[in-house]
């Protein structure tokens, strides 16, 4: 098996989660009680043995860099290789590249120095547990130039509407790439490709004034690339709106969904050493996901609490997502609400959203 090289491309992931992406990019949004969306992508790459990973970022990545550090949780804190956060270089007036091609053009040294021969390209809006090694074996068996990873979704949801779709023939090759919204084969923004072929295609795209690698090199396919399709059948969630974030968060309160996401291989994240959650005699918790470091004296029902949340006596939290270090004061009530980090809800306050349209509060706000 050839050595794999990871690229996490955030360049075209729009910050669509409203208040949750006011101060951070989508990849840094907290999810499932203790993780960030990027943790799932990096963990998949870690389990595939990928030791060199480039992260293409363009905006609002301070929070992301704080979370990633040197990449230790994903075994990327290395003297040789490891994690590379690569914003585009704005200081070259002769640079003809644009879009995500600019990241590659301005960071060619990363690709040249990396010992990886095969590139695994992914984003963070599709939460999944893809076995990248198995996908690579399939790529080799098919003798493909590029292999696209997709999943078949029987019950299409609003978050699937903007996703790219694939037509796959009986031999397992892609016959057409499109955006027909009633089509069920959802492209998961992941592909596998030989590194040198990838760089050759980048150079061709730049020479022709193009700026979007997937669209201009793969979807339009002017070079006649042999494109295979690898079908993934495990846990899959698309997080590209507040509504999809809330719905998929709440779905993890179903034990079957939770186990499907976390059962086989661990998901790694930034390590924080905190005491276990403390439940007082007045606490009442039902069907909820509670991270460590919380203090609960009130009632929590069908909710997700991140690290260090405090729910005081008489307070009620229902069908809500409460992020790190939020404080819910005495006799406050929240239902169908998402609170970002460090929000304080004062005594006797009430916040109620809708199940299909949750009320969202930006970080560090006192209400």
From TrEMBL:
* SUPFAM superfamilies with a match to the protein in the record: Nucleotide-diphospho-sugar transferases, Trimeric LpxA-like enzymes
Instruction: Name one molecular function that GO assigns to this entry.
Output: glucose-1-phosphate adenylyltransferase activity
| Keywords attached to this entry | Glycogen biosynthesis, Nucleotidyltransferase, Transferase
Concerning InterPro entries, the annotation shows: ADP-Glc_PPase (IPR011831), GlgDAde_trans (IPR011832), GlmU/GlgC-like_hexapep (IPR056818), NTP_transferase_dom (IPR005835), Nucleotide-diphossugar_trans (IPR029044), Trimer_LpxA-like_sf (IPR011004)
EC number(s) recorded for this UniProt protein: 2.7.7.27
Q: Which residues form the Nucleotidyl transferase domain?
A: 16-155
**Superkingdom in the source lineage:** Bacteria
Ranges of residues in domain Glucose-1-phosphate adenylyltransferase/Bifunctional protein GlmU-like C-terminal hexapeptide? 281-349
What family does the entry list?
Answer: Belongs to the bacterial/plant glucose-1-phosphate adenylyltransferase family.
> Could you identify this protein by its name?
Glucose-1-phosphate adenylyltransferase subunit GlgD
| Organism from which the protein derives | Paenibacillus lacisoli
User: Which gene specifies this protein's sequence?
Assistant: glgD
């Amino acid at each position: 098996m050839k050595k794999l090289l990871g690229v996490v491309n955030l360049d075209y992931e729009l910050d669509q989660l409203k208040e949750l992406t006011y101060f951070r990019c989508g990849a840094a949004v907290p999810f499932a009680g203790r993780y960030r969306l990027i943790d799932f992508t990096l963990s998949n790459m870690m389990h595939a043995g990928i030791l060199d990973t480039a992260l293409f970022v363009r905006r609002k990545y301070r929070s992301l860099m704080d979370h990633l550090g040197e990449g230790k949780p994903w075994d990327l804190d290395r003297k040789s290789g490891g994690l590379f956060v690569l914003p585009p270089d704005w200081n070259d007036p002769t640079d003809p590249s644009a879009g995500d091609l600019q990241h590659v053009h301005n960071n060619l040294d990363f690709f040249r120095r990396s010992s990886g021969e095969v590139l695994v390209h992914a984003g963070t809006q599709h939460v999944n547990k893809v076995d990248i090694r198995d996908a690579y074996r399939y790529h080799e068996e098919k003798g493909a130039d590029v292999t696209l990873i997709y999943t078949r979704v029987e019950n299409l949801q609003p978050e699937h509407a903007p996703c790219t779709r694939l037509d796959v023939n009986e031999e397992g090759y892609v016959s057409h790439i499109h955006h027909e919204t009633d089509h069920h084969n959802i492209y998961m923004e992941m592909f596998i490709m030989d590194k040198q072929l990838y760089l050759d295609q980048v150079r061709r795209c730049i020479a022709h004034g193009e700026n979007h690698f997937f669209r201009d090199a793969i979807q339009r396919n002017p070079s006649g690339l042999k494109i295979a399709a690898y079908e993934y059948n495990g846990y899959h969630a698309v997080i590209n709106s507040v509504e999809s974030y809330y719905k998929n968060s709440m779905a993890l309160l179903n034990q079957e969904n939770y186990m499907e996401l976390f059962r086989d291989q661990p998901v790694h994240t930034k390590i924080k050493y905190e005491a276990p959650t403390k439940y007082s005699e007045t606490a009442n918790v039902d069907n909820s996901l509670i991270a460590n470091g919380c203090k609960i004296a009130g009632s929590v029902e069908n909710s997700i609490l991140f690290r260090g949340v405090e729910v005081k006596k008489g307070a009620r939290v229902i069908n809500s997502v409460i992020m790190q270090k939020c404080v819910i004061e005495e006799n406050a009530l929240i239902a169908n609400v998402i609170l970002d980090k460090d929000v304080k809800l004062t005594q006797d306050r009430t916040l109620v959203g809708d199940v299909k349209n949750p009320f969202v509060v930006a970080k560090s706000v006192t209400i």
